[in-house]
Amino acid sequence: MGTGTSPRTPPAPAPPLPLLGYVVGVTADRRRDELTALLKRRGARVVEAPTMRIVPLDDDVALRRATERCLTAPLDYVVATTGVGWRGWMSAAEGWGHGAGLAAACRGAHVLTRGPKATGAVRASGLAEAYSPASEACDELLAWLLARDLTGRRIAVQEHGAPLPGFSDTLRERGAEVIEVPVYRWTQPEDPGAARRLVEQTARREVHALTFTSAPAIEFFLGCARETGLYAQVLDALRGPVLPVCVGSVCARPLEEAGVPTVQPERGRLGALVRTLTHILPTRDRRTLREDPHGLALQGNALIAGTDAVWLPPLPAAILRALAEHPGWVLSRSELLRRVWADDRTDEHAVEAAVGRLRSALGPHAGLIRTVPKRGYRLVVEG
Q1: Which end of the chain is more exposed for a tag (fewer CB within 10 A), N or C?
Q2: Residue 286 to residues 6, 17, 234, 336: CA-CA distances in angstroms?
Q3: What's the predicted TM-score (pTM) here?
């Protein structure tokens, strides 16, 4: 008799990762490693190109003077604009021996916070916020303050990387004494070349999505696009095939003002940003080429056959995508030139060479591309 054991059923093959085939640009400086890891875990190839960096000013004379000025008389209002800035300010004050005094001064004031990160930092320091707008916008903080009599009031404003002249000047016009607290500043990234390369890749539509976690990162990115003469091409790409994903509405404002619609998660968190991108990107781009037990699909720059994937270079992938828009249709060389190449000086010999590279990259799937003599090329998707 047998042992009574039955053969084990082999495990079902794992489905392809949801971002397999996509190239995603990461422009963040802070928490870049965390965001990159989340994207790679889902199969994406990541282009890391911080467009700015944050320089802390905890040894800066201006910050120390502003802190000491806050302690010369009671504060009426304190504005916290960022979590990292608030924590940096409290830490620097502690190092100078002013920690207890600054905490007491803030406790005796109305503390306003711009968004959940600033709110969390304020609460972690043992304080409570009097007001925090749902929009995370400085405009609403300003409106809340202007609804009160500010004559003779002392207001400390923790800046977030750059001065807030419009904010502070408006408060001064209403009779307030404003103490600007510069905790850190934004400056050029350590590797400006990486940011320029990301601008060029965006203009050539070689990335499928860009992630932004702050408005200054967008402003630096667009500034780099202007410097390289690619501003118009970058905006066209972001209005078309390149998906801009922003962590929130305040972050997205520079793009929205430039006429670029953005995608934002419901909650301003990195995990939510990645989940939003993971949900939306395949719905925009994925092309099912053949529906059978093995399946065949084009997703980003990858041809996915069952659980296997073939990564393609950007130009061959763009050709395959153009052919996949109408499987079986013949596209002439001139039509492929128009659809795939941005440079109108390219001739049809470049199409022939690129199709050859595509076939080489496809390997066992090279038969997908059929040459139709004197007419062009078509995609063959029959099983």
Answers
A1: N
A2: 40, 13, 22, 20
A3: 0.74
Task: Decide if 142 is inside a domain.
Answer: yes
Same domain membership, residue 364 and residue 334: yes
Q: Name the residue type at position 120.
A: G
Helix (H) or strand (E) holding 84: helix 83-95
Q: How confident is residue 344, by pLDDT bands cut at 50, 70 and 90?
A: low
Name the amino acid, one letter, at 218.
I
Q: How far apart are CA 26 and CA 84, in angstroms?
A: 20
Mapped onto helix, strand or coil, the DSSP state of residue 124 is helix
User: 204 with 47: CB under 8 angstroms?
Assistant: no
Asked if residue 164 and residue 91 are part of one domain, the reply reads: yes
Task: Please name every residue paired with 370 in a beta bridge, in sequence order, or none if there are none.
Answer: 378
- What backbone phi and psi angles, to 5 degrees, belong to 302? -125, 135
pLDDT (tens digit per residue) in 30-60: 889 999 999 999 999 999 999 988 777 655 7
Q: d(Cα 221, Cα 111) in Å, to the nearest integer?
A: 33
Note whether 328 and 381 are within 8 A (CB). yes
Count Cβ atoms below 10 Å from residue 320 Cβ, excluding itself. 24
Q: Which structural domain, as residue segments, surrounds residue 93?
A: 55-186
Domain assignment present for residue 4? The answer is no
Tokens at residue 237, please?
Answer: 């790409």
